[in-house]
Amino acid sequence: MKKWMYIVLIAIIMVIAIIIGIYLFKNEDTPKTENRNVLSTNQTLNLIDEEEQENTILNEISVSSNETEKISPNAVLILKKQYEECAHTIKEYARIPEEYVNLTKEELEEKQSDWEVETFSPNEVILIKEASGVCNQHYVLRQKDGVIAIYQIGKDNSETLKEETSISVEYLTQTDKLRLEEGIRIYGEEELNSTLEDYE
Ligand SMILES: [Zn+2]
To answer: 193 CA distance to ligand 1 centroid (A)?
Structure first.
């Protein structure tokens, strides 16, 4: 035989082999993947069922326990004040007052007229209320007697001297002096400290 006939023969054999291969592969594989799909769908269904069951169980527990849950003597009391003007929320942490110990959520709500119960659990009670004006985290820096002074901004934009620093205004740049003249407004202790550090 001639060389090209060998090549054609080999090529034909390879094509047939590939076709048989694909056919066998498909026959073997198709039912398996179907089975797997069926299995996984069943499994997800089971999972969803379990989740639903857990949720209903959890709901039942929380419903039944809410009625009997009482404030523990070691509970933490968190007082949240939402300030109307600046929209900041200030948190205060406190030990639970003695008169609150052993109260249920309903009893606590009855006792509290101006605070709303936001979160209730035996170990943590969060009370929240709206407050007027700005929170106590607003400051303004001004020049006073040649040094930078910190003023606290209160209701109606009133300013109360909080502290006179030892930072002399004398060596500040003209821009900083002008800014101090207008008053540098600051929010929060962190910004206050970092701003003062910049001027030191
Ligand atoms: Zn504020």
So the answer is: 17
Q: Are 135 and 90 in contact (CB under 8 A)?
A: yes
Distance 43 CA to ligand 1 centre (A): 51
The pLDDT score that the predictor gives to residue 55 is 56
Q: Average pLDDT over the chain, rounded to whole?
A: 82
Give residue 89's domain range.
76-131
Do 64 and 22 belong to one domain?
Answer: yes
Would you say 137 and 188 are in contact if contact means Cβ atoms under 8 Å apart? yes
Tell which of 29, 49, 68 closes a domain: 68
Taking the centre of ligand 1 as the mean of its atom positions, its distance from the CA of residue 89, in whole angstroms, is 7
pLDDT band at residue 116 using 50, 70 and 90 as cut-offs: very high
**Alpha carbon distance 127, 111 (integer Å):** 12
| CA nearest neighbour of 81 among 71, 68, 91, 72 | 91
Q: How many domains does the chain have?
A: 3
